[in-house]
């Protein structure tokens, strides 16, 4: 029942009330533009599923729920080869760019050591359009644009992100190409840039640009480097918040807490852009203004057993760094995504994978 409703009503029987409460909690998960990679209690933990249906003998299914009804709403999804165009806003080190570039390139990499980023993407590929065509296997890094001098300032609103994209696609020198059908535009802000609601409600968000601002409708996402502003929120578990004393942060796999924290957010947003680019394709819930998307359902789950405040089983390298999947040469920690065929969160790292 909504608060503030006038009048009296009969209280439903307890079992019915409990179901209503559970359903209400599920549908109140973060909307498309308000995501933070933080362990939560909206997804229940469950024992690994013994099914070998889609991913061989690996046991890597967690967070199942009979209340989740991921539905296709007939909008477009990205079935053609996906090209990711990046905008580096502010001051970025070459080493930081290399980490992010390799993650994007690893999505389609062949021959990466298992468990791999490409294996993680196979769950995203299960989603289809109305013709039955699957999300593209191919995700390639496209053109890049540097905005080193903070052309729109160091404090940005959500709409300012679209203005940053406009500047990149209309630049006099080497503008980003316009690709509305299969292009994704990712804006990465440096660690000294504050974006509206950053750290308080969001670590990243995705949407589509407005023709009135950019001139085109382009699927895009923003992800910020939280290293200076809020690593305990947006770079968890490589940093922990002050209100959780005694909890030790994990060692990041690439030696950069802010960027390693960004990787999972980037994966979250790219997966949702591929399956819901115009916010009218794959999501759960009744309200398209506040959709629950395939990555929202698996926040905080990185391995078998994940749920609540537990990330799930992860792997530790010889250097003590923690990760759950391999890229081309690097290792990454990336949250799982929802498998709508099994009604589970899925990931490539299995309970039976050896620690390296």
UniProtKB/TrEMBL annotation:
Please tell me the species this chain comes from: Morus notabilis
> Where's it found, cell-wise?
Secreted, Extracellular space, Apoplast
> Lineage of the source organism?
Eukaryota, Viridiplantae, Streptophyta, Embryophyta, Tracheophyta
**For this UniProt entry, which residues form the secretion signal?**
1-34
Which keywords has UniProt assigned to this entry?
A: Apoplast, Secreted, Signal
One Pfam family per UniProt: Phi_1
Keyword Secreted, does the record have it? yes
InterPro entries found in the cross-reference section: EXORDIUM-like
User: Does Transmembrane show up as a keyword for this record?
Assistant: no
Q: Which family does it belong to?
A: Belongs to the EXORDIUM family.
Name assigned to this protein = Protein EXORDIUM-like 3
Query: What's a single GO CC term here?
Result: apoplast
């Amino acid at each position: 029942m909504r608060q503030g409703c006038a009048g009296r009503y009969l209280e439903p029987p307890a079992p019915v009330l409990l179901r209503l409460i559970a359903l209400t909690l599920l549908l109140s998960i973060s909307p498309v533009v308000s995501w933070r990679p933080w362990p939560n209690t909206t997804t229940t933990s469950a024992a690994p599923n013994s099914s070998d249906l889609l991913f061989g003998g690996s046991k890597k299914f967690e967070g199942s729920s009979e209340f989740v009804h991921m539905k296709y709403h007939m909008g477009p999804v990205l079935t053609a080869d996906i090209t990711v165009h990046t905008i580096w806003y502010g001051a970025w080190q070459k080493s930081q760019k290399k980490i992010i570039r390799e993650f994007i390139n690893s999505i389609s990499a062949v021959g990466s050591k298992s468990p791999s980023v490409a294996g993680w993407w196979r769950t995203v590929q299960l989603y289809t359009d109305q013709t039955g065509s699957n999300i593209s296997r191919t995700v390639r890094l496209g053109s890049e644009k540097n905005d080193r001098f903070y052309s729109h300032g160091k404090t940005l609103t959500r709409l300012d992100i679209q203005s940053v994209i406009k500047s990149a696609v209309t630049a006099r020198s080497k503008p980003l190409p316009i690709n509305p059908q299969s292009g994704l535009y990712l804006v990465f802000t440096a660690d000294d840039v504050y974006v509206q609601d950053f750290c308080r409600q969001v670590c990243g968000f995705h949407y589509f640009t407005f023709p009135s601002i950019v001139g085109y409708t382009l699927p895009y996402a923003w992800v910020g480097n939280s290293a200076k502003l809020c690593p305990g929120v947006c770079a968890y578990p490589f940093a922990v918040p002050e209100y959780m004393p005694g909890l030790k942060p994990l060692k990041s796999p690439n030696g950069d807490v802010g960027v390693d924290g960004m990787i999972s957010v980037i994966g979250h947003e790219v997966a949702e852009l591929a399956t819901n680019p115009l916010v009218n394709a794959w999501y759960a819930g009744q309200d398209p203004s506040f959709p629950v998307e395939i990555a929202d359902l698996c926040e905080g789950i990185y391995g078998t057993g994940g749920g609540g405040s537990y990330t799930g089983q992860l792997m530790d390298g010889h250097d003590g760094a923690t990760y759950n999947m391999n890229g081309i040469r690097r290792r990454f920690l990336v949250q799982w995504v929802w498998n709508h065929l099994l009604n589970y969160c899925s990931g490539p790292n299995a309970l039976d994978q050896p620690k390296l």
